[in-house]
Amino acid sequence: MKPKMLILSLALCMGTALTGCQRAAEQLPLETITYSNLAEPAVQEELAELMSGAGISEERQWVFFDHVDQFNSAVSKESLAAGFE
């Protein structure tokens, strides 16, 4: 009888623990979104200042902006956002 009680107790504990793993309440979508492809130097400079303020090294920033430039050169200019949209 004791093994059955142990299994039942473990099952109850696991069931209780797993109910806490449910998804948090759904967040409402944003009404507006602002984005940029970082295609303009002024926007890149603004981001570089924010990155420096956050302690991101210039080397990592250079690598990041190199990837941005690679992406932007692979996409048609008409597809890129001008500034922040």
Question: Can you walk through the features of this model?
Answer:
The model has no long low-confidence stretch (mean pLDDT 80). The protein is 56% helix and 0% strand. It has a domain at 40-77. By secondary structure, the protein is mainly α. The chain starts with a helix and ends in an 11-residue tail after the last helix. It has helices at 2-19, 41-53, 58-74.
Class from helix and strand fractions? mainly alpha
Output the number of helix runs. Answer: 3
Q: Radius of gyration, rounded?
A: 25 Å
Instruction: Measure the end-to-end span.
Output: 68 Å
Q: How much helix, percentage-wise, in residues? A: 55-70%
The biggest beta sheet, please?
A: none
Structure at a glance:
The protein has 85 residues and is mostly helical. The chain has a domain at 40-77.
Question: Key terms for this structure?
Answer:
85 residues, mainly alpha, elongated
Tell me the layout of helices and strands.
Layout: H1 2-19, H2 41-53, H3 58-74
